[in-house]
Amino acid sequence: MAASLTVVIAVNPMASFGHRAEVGPRVIERVRAEGHTVVDMREANIELLRRETRRALEAGADALVVVGGDGMVNLGVNLVAQTGTPLGIVPSGTGNDVADGLGIPVGDTEAAIDLLLDALQSPPRVIDAGVVRHGGLSTWFCGVVSAGFDATVNERANRMTWPRGRSRYIVALLRELATLRPIPYEVVADGVPLETKALLISVANNRSLGGGMRIVPHAVLDDGMLDLFVVSAMSRLHFLRVFPRVFSGTHTDLPQVSFRAVKTVSLNAPGVIAYADGERIGPLPVEISVVPGALRMLA
């Protein structure tokens, strides 16, 4: 008989704008049916959910499971990084890039729960995490830090209520194209100073962001490195022509695109807001570093 565990399950009440509200109760039902003790965390807002989930973990738990998108994954990562508590994901959000990168089924709730239940009885997968240091604070991330045009698009997309899903990011991108311009960055990558004018800079642990944009298709979650992704200046028309290639990951050979494996990187530029896993960090400058093996994942 499988060992009984105490599992904290935190559910985002507004994942996919509340249109997949049935996923959380289904996860709780099936985990309980396997004989595990469930600590059901469903709160009115994210801040309350974060606080109460932290209390539940401090009271003692064998695992944390988050139900939602990359924002919920980021919440979970910031609660369990370097604690040894494994983190599970049942994707039900607008963007589910971390789940996809881990091989968790996206868009098939029952298959995702099946994988979770198997993983609860298996050794967790150990992966890296990143840390963003900003204004005296530190924030963990699992996926991607955006600090350019992609972050501007994210900021607009987060304010939009229509459309839903991946298309929301595309609409936001098209609206932001009107102000597309290269930004002068000061970058220090593993101690090497770089000055560049770029449209987009990201620092990736995972391969994709924004609901399937495979910006660094070769990224590996457990290689002890991050990937610095830079898109240099090009015209709006050229950008529109090449942008669809990001979804298939076939943009990597473009002359305006560069990649660099890094352990630490600092970014500074005027008027740029950084995002991590789709969550707002704040204005540059930021310092980003990899912490190998910081996360134990149920995947």
Automatic annotation (TrEMBL):
Keywords: ATP-binding, Kinase, Lipid biosynthesis, Lipid metabolism, Magnesium, Metal-binding, Nucleotide-binding, Phospholipid biosynthesis, Phospholipid metabolism, Transferase
InterPro entries, per database record: ATP-NAD_kinase_N, Diacylglycerol/lipid_kinase, Diacylglycerol_kinase_cat_dom, Lipid_Phosphate_FormReg, NAD/diacylglycerol_kinase_sf, YegS/DAGK_C
One Gene Ontology term of the molecular function aspect: ATP binding
Pfam family, any one: DAGK_cat
Statement: the UniProt record of this protein carries the keyword Phosphoprotein: no
GO annotation terms (biological process): phospholipid biosynthetic process
Requisite cofactors: Mg(2+)
Stated name of the protein: DAGKc domain-containing protein
Superkingdom to which the source organism belongs: Bacteria
NCBIfam families for this protein: YegS/Rv2252/BmrU family lipid kinase
Domain DAGKc: 1-136
Family statement: Belongs to the diacylglycerol/lipid kinase family.
GO terms under cellular component: plasma membrane
Lineage: Bacteria, Bacillati, Actinomycetota, Actinomycetes, Micrococcales
